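Researcher: Next sequence.
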Amino acid sequence: MSSDMPPVAKKVPTTRTHHGDTVIDEYAWLFKKDDADTISYLEAENAYTQEATGHLKDLQEKVFQEIKARTQETDLSVPTRKGAWWYYSRTEEGKQYGIQCRVAADGDDPPALTAGEALPGEQVLLDGNELAGDSPFFAVGTSAVSPDGTMLAYSTDFSGDERFTLRFKDLRSGELLPDEIPGIFYGGAWSADGSTFFYTTIDEAWRPYRVHRHTLGSDEDVLVYQEDDERFWIGIGLTRSQRYLVLSAGSKITSEVRVLDAADPTGEFTVVRPRHTGVEYDLDHAGDRFLILHNDGARNFELATAPLDDPGTWTPLIEHREDTRLLDVDAFKSHIVVHFRREGLTGIRILPGDGGEPYEIAFPEPLYDVAPSGNPEFETSRLRLGYTSMITPPSVYDYDLPSRELILLKRRPVLGGYEPEDYEQFREWATAEDGTRVPISIVMRKGAGRPAPTLLYGYGSYETSIDPYFSVARLSLLDRGFVFAVAHVRGGGEMGRGWYEDGKLTRKKNTFTDFVACARHLKAAGWSSRIIARGGSAGGLLMGAVANIAPEEFAGIVAEVPFVDALNTILDPSLPLTVIEWDEWGDPLHNPDVYAYMKSYSPYENIDGRPYPPILAITSLNDTRVLYHEPAKWIARLRATAQGGPFLLKTEMGAGHGGRSGRYDAWREEAFALSWILDRAGVTE
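Model: Next structure:
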């Protein structure tokens, strides 16, 4: 097959019938990952994409060099105190992965670090570069130091399928223990004495469903808990106080939490409150009580307290508010920190432990995102915060509670003369078809002409919020006169729980029409000329849907690991994630109304013969969340059915859901996507 001609996928009609509806799927054969025809086809698509984008090679290299030149390659994080140590990570020029380190603590102020210089007494916990070796993919899933600071549990993945191997390192001697456990999931938790580690494993549908207890030096691990309801995932953690192990089971809409004294790792977990459909809750330990964040009769959540010996009895501490979504709570010895969302922005509320009046921390920018970050120490008078905006690089603050002072510890360096005042950010509001006002976050370079070519990003699922954020790579667009905008569409969480509920199940189409309304608003308000849309994963479903709804609005579409064969995937309970996803999308397998609704918007099902904009789909062969065959089938059907294009598919043959793992590899992938976006907008310099 010549690479200068688009591959033509063979048609092997496969028939399925649901609720009296018979559907023929000509490209279902692409599901067979190990079939030689599948691999051959994906490789032919890669060759065609390489040929079709060959004229962008110089631009790709230029954008890559811009990203690299703006990044301080030898860098380090702000140290975080835990027990007798300060923990931090650093990167070195020319190396793909980070290095995790620690130094002994001396006083309460973090040590002053200089990039490229090791501190006296530095201990390297994990060097990702050494661990990765020559592997084309590498990721760490777990990295947890025991409460006494003597042992490290860590897990690694060398294929991208998110199945990790767990190992243990004695930090006193630097030696690896012989204990080795393959096939585990993310996360894990130590017992109080560091003798025992709890971890989770997954079933065939890639659902974490078991918690195991491993005693160091033992060959026999104990199954502690198994979750048989296929809608529920489980996880295990340790409270900040290190007093309690917390075993959480959760579906998309329901929670159940169990607790166990961390000093008694062989004991029985106690249920906090039995699961009740639609009630979500989480727990933290605060001295003589538990803190419970829950939505029982409180759509935007409220904060309650519960006795240690009766954790199912909840007394309100912060009552529900319609205008404020409570996101998380962090308990410390002398105060409580609440992370919340109001009017599309995040915020921090402090509840002093001495009975003082609660208060919120003020921030100066009109658009920003703030969250507690790196606060493992239970007894402290400082709160570590992460802060960013569309023009302010990621910043680390300590908030000193006694003085109520924000102390800037570090702002990520952006090299090459970057000045925040050269850029400006705005909040606009589009009006959706049903009259709902939809927020849009916008950033551009000051003095850039308008209307301008625009990259419009969207997600809109799982109550995930795409808050204002900074991007070094994005500067390559802004400095060429682009506007970058985020459409905060329904299905996300930007405007509270109701915003999410109005973009899921049988209201899912609001997500798509909101995005189209944002694109049209940007043009009508004079912001945008040619708009290129971009989204990934569930945001890739958004891209496929808007391509069907309003192809004329977009000069190009980038869909990364896109969930574009949604109906077929959600119909198959044997696939990873399907059953748990029924709470998000509905159950088309058993409900004919849900089937009809999903069929009416699923991108793969609704391609027609109209002209479509050029589309670039990027996926990974080893993705366990959105399987590679979805974009492969989508592109094949687009090419066979639609006009317009071209329609390109790029498959990473050795990566997972997050794409390539090394930072330089990831920068090259981003440069590839950005050069295509620039080309679609007619902007190359």
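Model: The chain has twelve helices and 41 strands. The two ends are 34 Å apart (CA to CA).
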